Amino acid sequence: MTQIRRADRSDASEMAAMRYAFRTELAEPNEPEQEFKARATAWFQDRLTAGSWTAWLAHHPEPEQQYEQDRPVGLVLVQLIEKVPNPVVEPETLGYISCLYVRPPWRGRGIGDQLLGTAVAFCRDNGVESVVLWPSPRSVPLYERHGFRHQAEVMELRVAVKCSPALRPAAEPPSLPIPRLSL
Ligand SMILES: CC(C)(COP(=O)(O)OP(=O)(O)OC[C@H]1O[C@@H](n2cnc3c(N)ncnc32)[C@H](O)[C@@H]1OP(=O)(O)O)[C@@H](O)C(=O)NCCC(=O)NCCS
C-alpha cells in the first residue's frame, strides 16, 4: 500500500518540514522553526535541481487520516560522492545516505525499510563501492537488516562538534558538492 516516489523541487517545503521534525526529535533546535524551514526549503530546491542529492518520499494512504492522505509520511536522501579516478579495479563512487525519516504515526509498518531499500538499490545501480551513514542508536537494527555493519577502517577528525549559525554554509553552494557528513 505504501508508495515510494522520487522527490523533485516541488516537494522541498514538505522535505524541510520533515527535516525539522526529524532533527528536533533528537535535539533542541538552535534556530527559529520558520527560519530553518525557509533555509532548508531553498537548500532542497537547489540540490534536487542540481542533482547533487537524490531523494524519495513515502506515501501511505490511511482512511482514518484524510488530512495526511496526499502528504508524504517519510523521506530518505542519497548523495553520490565521487572518488578520485582510479587506475585499478575499484569503483569510483561512494554513497552517503541521510535523513531517513518516517513520521511517528506511521512507524513500525515497514516504511523505513522500504525507503532504505530504495536508497540502497539506487546506490547499487550507480556502481557505488560502499554506502556510509550515521545511524541513530535505535535505528541500528534496521540498517543491520540491510547489511550495514560498523567498521573501523575510516579515520575521522571532529573539527566542529557544535554547529553555530556562524558555521553554517553560505547560501550559494560551492561549484562542486562538498559532502557534509552527519545524520
Ligand atoms: C528510523 C525510521 C525511519 C524507521 O522507520 P519505520 O518505518 O518505523 O521502520 P520499519 O518499520 O521499516 O522498521 C522498524 C525499525 O526501525 C527502527 N526504529 C523504530 N523506531 C525507531 C525510532 N523511534 N528511531 C529510530 N529508529 C527506529 C528499529 O530499528 C526498528 O527495528 P526493530 O523493531 O527490529 O528494532 C523511523 O523510526 C524514524 O524516522 N526515526 C526517527 C529518525 C531516525 O532516527 N532516523 C534514522 C537515523 S539516520
What integer is the average pLDDT?
89
The largest sheet has its strands arranged as 1-2-3-4-5
CATH class: Alpha Beta
Spatial extent as radius of gyration: 17 Å
SS-derived structural category:
alpha+beta
Number of domains: 1
Distance between the termini: 28 Å
Question: What share of residues are in beta strands?
Answer: 15-25%
Global morphology: globular
Q: Give the cofactors and ligands.
A: coenzyme A
Strand segment tally = 5
Number of helices: 4
Helices and strands, with pairings:
Blueprint: E1 3-6, H1 12-26, H2 33-50, E2 54-59, E3 74-82, E4 93-102, H3 111-125, E5 131-132, H4 140-145
Parallel strand pairs: 4-5
Antiparallel strand pairs: 1-2, 2-3, 3-4
The protein binds coenzyme A.
What structural keywords apply?
binds coenzyme A; 5 strands; globular; Aminopeptidase; 183 residues; alpha+beta
Provide structural commentary.
Helix 1 packs across helix 2. The protein is globular, with a radius of gyration of 17 Å. Strand 4 (93-102), helix 3 (111-125) and strand 5 (131-132) form a beta-alpha-beta unit. The protein has helices spanning 12-26, 33-50, 111-125, 140-145; strands at 3-6, 54-59, 74-82, 93-102, 131-132. The chain is built from 4 helices and 5 strands. It is α+β, with helices and mostly antiparallel strands and 183 residues long. The chain has one domain (3-167): Gcn5-related N-acetyltransferase (GNAT) (Aminopeptidase), CATH 3.40.630. The two termini are 28 Å apart. It has a 5-stranded mixed β-sheet.
